[in-house]
């Protein structure tokens, strides 16, 4: 009896510890899931989609994945070492390339923990020790070795008459640049709600906005893709947020504007100026609102990207099966002075104009990313309709470049029947010698080169660039129509000409290459051009992972 009495308290203590340990494990899993979701949005969602649905036969689905269930170590290896071999997921074969991702062991554990516990997967907890064991068998044995392989690349040789330097290295993935264009502070927009202020004179980089500063927006579930500074030094930001709703998941998108200044004069306190929504796109194709700029007329222009790849209806009931909506794949114009702003649609049939700008005569041009098929990327001339005129249609999803939907580029899609008697506005014809497809004039750039920042250089720039457009190209995420073909990672120079039939052409040459996925170009002051690099590698073949990029300064020699 005394022995039993002595053992009883110890036994009760052991039994009492079980609920505590279960609670600790649940709390640990929840914390890892939260960290992993943020990492997934920043590093994985671009290819695998916000809901893990993948992209066609290019990027495999992570949702309800039988491959993940069978290959937990293989999933870790894909993240730390990249993936080149063919795999079969849910009965479909995938042959794409995945570069290693620049995350340490704990971060890899968190992001995979998030994935395997989401979207109908089998669950479980992946630890940093699990990751370290797999990494030890990979090409890069340690995180430090992988990070060194993905270091900043040497600066490219500048064009004649220019100087190039590194302005600032970024702690976040940048999407846009904005300033007063007269040498004032530079504002850098991150893709998930951060805004940084950089002082070119002092070299000071300071974060002034965080995701939590956007009231009603849930961090980790939204993107910020457009930024402009107005004459009152207010920032205007385009926002897209994925919201789970019934019966359809929504993209709640809109334009936010800062409403106050801090003690140092930084614009703060963003508030929604305009909000709308539509059913979330077909898997990963919800391009949402992106570029935003003020025109010479004082009005605000906005790009609203497509919610499909090529007009397909999709197969997931919670994402909506209506192809494009009234406001997607369009260009908007709005009155920034209005307290009840309304959308005026000035162009249709534009898949995803990540950037747009005006030439010296006030002609408006957009540059758009094309579908996953090998269609060329477009540059389009936009002519807003006069009152009573129909809105011009630029072809998407029925026509890309000069080729109709019957072209082989579209054989993998479910493009709906085109409207009767279409009269599409044809895109700019690229006469080369750069960015052609198959060595022939192209409307407008190589497939999968992803044109980005579009900037007009006026009469006060060097003769070789004077009165030309410069356009960045983010670079391939997909292989081109020829084996191992990839394009982009550069800036092109485009000399625009208008033919007698009204169609625009461009003489295109390479201005600067190679670059780490240039995502935006910005004139910061007379004779001074800034280039925002999204990441560090300057090609796809190196398979080096992603870390945030930097801002480069191009300055005209005196």
Model description:
Helices cover 16% and strands 31% of the residues. It is α+β, with helices and mostly antiparallel strands and 558 residues long. The protein has 2 domains: 10-148, Cytochrome Bc1 Complex, Chain D, domain 2; 150-556, 6 Propeller (Neuraminidase). The strands form 8 sheets. It has a 5-stranded mixed sheet, with no helix packed on it. The longest helix is centred in the first third of the chain and has 42 residues, at 2-43. The termini are far apart. The relative contact order is 0.11.
Concise structural overview:
The chain is of the alpha+beta class. The protein has helices at residues 2-43, 45-48, 66-70, 72-81, 105-116, 128-135, 143-149; strands at 87-89, 92-94, 162-169, 174-178, 186-190, 195-198, 205-209, 222-229, 235-243, 250-261, 267-279, 289-294, 300-304, 330-334, 344-348, 353-358, 364-368, 378-382, 399-400, 403-404, 429-433, 451-457, 468-473, 490-498, 504-512, 518-525, 528-533, 550-556.
């Amino acid at each position: 009896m005394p022995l039993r009495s002595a053992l009883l308290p110890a036994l009760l203590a052991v039994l009492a510890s079980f609920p505590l340990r279960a609670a600790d494990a649940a709390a640990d899993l929840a914390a890892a899931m939260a960290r992993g979701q943020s990492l997934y949005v920043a590093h994985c969602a671009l290819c695998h989609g916000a809901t893990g649905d993948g992209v066609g036969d290019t990027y495999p689905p992570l949702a309800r994945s039988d491959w993940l269930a069978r290959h937990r170590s293989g999933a870790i290896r894909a993240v730390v070492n990249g993936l080149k071999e063919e795999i079969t997921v849910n009965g479909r074969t995938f042959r794409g390339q995945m570069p290693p991702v620049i995350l340490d062991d704990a971060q890899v554990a968190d992001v995979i923990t998030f994935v395997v516990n989401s979207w109908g997967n089998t669950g479980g907890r992946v630890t940093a020790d699990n990751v370290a064991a797999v990494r030890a068998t990979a090409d890069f044995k340690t995180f430090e070795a992988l990070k060194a392989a993905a270091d900043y690349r040497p600066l490219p040789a500048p064009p004649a008459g220019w100087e190039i330097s590194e302005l600032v290295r970024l702690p976040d993935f940048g999407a846009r640049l904005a300033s007063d264009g007269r040498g004032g502070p530079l504002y850098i927009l991150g893709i998930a709600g951060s805004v940084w202020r950089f002082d070119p004179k002092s070299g000071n980089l300071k974060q002034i906005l965080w995701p939590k500063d956007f009231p009603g927006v849930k961090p980790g579930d939204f993107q910020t893709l457009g930024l402009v500074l107005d004459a009152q030094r207010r920032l205007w930001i385009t926002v897209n947020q994925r919201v789970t709703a019934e019966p359809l998941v929504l993209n709640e998108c809109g334009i936010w504007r800062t409403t106050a200044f801090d003690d140092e004069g930084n614009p703060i306190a963003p508030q929604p100026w305009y909000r709308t929504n539509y059913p979330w796109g077909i898997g990963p194709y919800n391009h949402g609102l992106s570029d935003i700029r003020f025109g010479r007329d004082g009005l605000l222009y906005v790009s609203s990207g497509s919610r499909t790849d090529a007009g397909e209806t999709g197969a997931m009931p919670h994402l909506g099966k209506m192809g494009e909506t009234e406001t997607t794949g369009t260009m908007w114009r709005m009155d920034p002075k209005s307290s009840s702003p309304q959308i005026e649609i000035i162009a249709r049939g534009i898949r995803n104009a990540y950037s747009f700008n005006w030439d010296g005569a006030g002609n408006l041009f957009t540059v758009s990313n094309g579908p996953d098929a090998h269609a060329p990327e477009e540059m389009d001339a936009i002519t807003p309709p006069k009152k009573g005129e129909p809105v011009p249609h630029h072809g998407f999803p029925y026509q890309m470049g000069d080729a109709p939907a019957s072209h082989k580029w579209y054989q993998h899609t479910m493009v709906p029947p085109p409207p009767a008697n279409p009269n599409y506005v044809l895109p700019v014809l690229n006469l080369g010698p750069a960015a052609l497809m198959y060595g022939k004039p192209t409307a407008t750039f190589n497939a999968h080169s992803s044109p980005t920042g579009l900037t007009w250089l006026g009469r006060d720039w060097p003769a070789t660039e004077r009165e030309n457009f410069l356009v960045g190209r983010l670079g391939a995420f997909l292989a081109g129509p020829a084996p191992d073909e990839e394009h982009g990672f550069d800036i092109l120079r485009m000399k625009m000409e208008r033919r007698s039939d009204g169609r625009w052409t461009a003489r295109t040459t390479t201005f600067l290459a190679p670059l780490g996925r240039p995502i935006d170009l910005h004139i910061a002051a007379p004779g001074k051009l800034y280039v925002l690099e999204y990441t560090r590698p300057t090609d796809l073949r190196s398979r080096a992972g992603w870390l945030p990029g930097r801002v480069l300064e191009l300055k005209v020699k005196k």
